[in-house]
Design a protein that fits this description.
Number of strands: 3
Number of helices: 3
Radius of gyration: 15 Å
Strand content: 5-15%
Low-confidence stretches: none
Strand order of the largest sheet: 2-1-3
Distance between the termini: 23 Å
Length: about 110
């Protein structure tokens, strides 16, 4: 499959072939299948963050015992791993500088 250039913003959850505004946090070169997989990971992160938001309103449930937070943390690590693998040199350098994948294989 042919790889195409995509602009990715983790903050807004956007993956686009068109660069505009602040959607160029990361530039990747990916196949359509890889973009679908990245989109699924970002959707899972969004769902987990909503669960964590609602959990935050229950004072008797501690943060460290929250499956939604654990799921979000795992999802964001997986998303950054994909961005690292598919990203251009600037994306790879930025992700390295963040240290988010230090425990994983880069």
């Amino acid at each position: 499959m042919e790889r195409k250039k995509f602009y990715v913003s983790i903050a807004s959850g956007e993956i686009s072939q068109i660069e505009y505004s602040n959607n160029d946090e990361f530039i990747i070169h990916a196949t359509e299948d890889e973009v679908v997989l990245l989109r699924e990971k970002m959707n899972e992160m969004h769902e987990a963050s909503m669960g964590a938001f609602w959990r935050a309103h229950i004072p008797i449930m501690p943060y460290h015992n929250d499956k939604a937070n654990d799921k979000y943390d795992a999802g964001i690590t997986e998303a950054y791993q994909m961005l690292y693998e598919l990203g251009d040199e600037q994306a790879k350098d930025h992700i390295k500088s963040m240290g988010i994948l230090e425990d994983n294989h880069m």
